[in-house]
Amino acid sequence: MENGEFRVADTKSVESIQKVRKNQLINVFERVKPDCLITEFFPFGRHLLLFELLPLLEYIKSTAPHTKIICSLRDVIGKVSDIQEEDTICYLMNKYFDLLLFHSDANFQIFAESFTRHQDINCPITHTGFIAQALKESCGNLWSNNGDFAKILVSVGGGRIGQEVLQTVIEASVIVSKKIKHEIQIFAGPFIPEDKFVNLQQAAKNQPNIKIAKYTQNLLEYMNTADISISLSGYNTAMNILSTRVKAIVVPLSHNDQDKEQLHRTQKLEDLGVVEVIHPDNLNPAYLANAVIKSLSTKHKESKQQVFDLNGAENTNAFLQRFLNKTSLIPSY
Fold first, then answer.
1. C-alpha to C-alpha distance for 7 and 13, rounded to whole angstroms
2. Whole-model pTM?
3. How many CB atoms lie within 10 A of CB 31?
4. Inter-residue contact 71 to 44 (CB < 8 Å)
5. Is the peptide bond before 285 cis (omega within 30 degrees of 0)?
6. How many other C-beta atoms lie within 10 A of the C-beta of residue 217?
7. Predicted pLDDT of residue 192
8. Concatenated DSSP letters for 60-89?
9. Which residues pair with 5 in a beta bridge?
10. Residue 293 near residue 179 (C-beta atoms within 8 A)
């Protein structure tokens, strides 16, 4: 996808690749013959993939009507749909889908807050709780310094966005070091462009207290042992913050002007006292350094985050078992 249009890497046409993808989906379905099909986010988005998803749904309805079709949706949809798009969402949900799994704790966000036409959706809707990663029992000492060194974790998810946060952290470290001895571990994301990763390494080369890597399997453990986390506010990162209850500064960035997912989630987390927020317009070294110094110098306040249900994976499994086995009905919202 480039500038809102599909592109093909070789000489084939977009139309030919779309046909191949459509047939591959149907062939995989026919080979697996699943009891249920789960879509991620669709039909609340991904409408540019209707060319392959609609034929699949039609194929299932006509050849395997016993297969349940389920939508898996995160806590925040993150965009405002126009009337026509809302009509499309409701039509697709009501025609093809048997269940909506909304991966949020109802104390944080209910489906009705994310979708104004919620009453027009006929299938059962269940709030699963948050889906959060579990901490490992032990992974050794992750940090170089102990004692009076503050441990600062910085991460930006996959790395396709957020490089400005990482650059600002590197520059802010010089200011913070005048007040607080600290160690910074940056994870720039596995999908960060190589030239931008090299630029970050160059920017930090004279600061031995900063370590930069693209990825770690122990991100949650780093966060659990950090004194403060600086990050974006995507779903997985937010779940890590809730799980570890670490002090957190978040910068809600988006892929485009219409993507409000991180902003909406951040506002909720800020209202509950879970995170401190720096708006992207205020992201500069002095502002960030002041926020870090202030946060590290104050006692961590307990928030309402401990009441959240973080067992969404287990809950989802139980919901699906009951739904597919028809041993009980899932309550609808």
1. 9
2. 0.85
3. 8
4. yes
5. no
6. 8
7. 96
8. HHHH-TTSEEEEEEES---S---HHHHHHH
9. 2
10. yes
Contact 152, 292 (CB under 8 A): yes
The span from the CA of 30 to the CA of 278, in Å, is 49
The pLDDT value recorded for residue 5 is 84
Tokens of 156: 């930006």
Spatial distance between the Cα atoms of 161 and 156, rounded to a whole number of angstroms: 7
Tokens 């509950």: give the residue. 272
113-165 confidence digits (pLDDT tens): 989 999 999 999 999 999 999 988 777 789 987 778 999 999 999 998 999 99
Read off the pLDDT of residues 225-277 as tens digits, 9 standing for 90 and up: 999 999 999 999 999 999 999 999 999 987 656 567 788 888 889 988 899 99
Q: Which helix (H) or strand (E) holds 114?
A: helix 111-114
Find tokens 């959706």 and name the residue.
121
Report in angstroms the alpha-carbon separations of 183 from 212, 217, 226, 240.
11, 19, 10, 20
Supply the angle between the helices 163-176 and 285-297 in degrees, to the nearest 10.
60
Query: Which pair of tokens denotes residue 73?
Result: 């949706």
Answer yes or no: are the C-beta atoms of 200 and 167 closer than 8 Å: yes
Structure tokens at 102: 């909304």
Amino acid 98 reads: D
Q: Which residues contact 233 (CB under 8 A, 6 or more apart)?
A: 250, 251, 252, 262, 265, 266, 269, 275
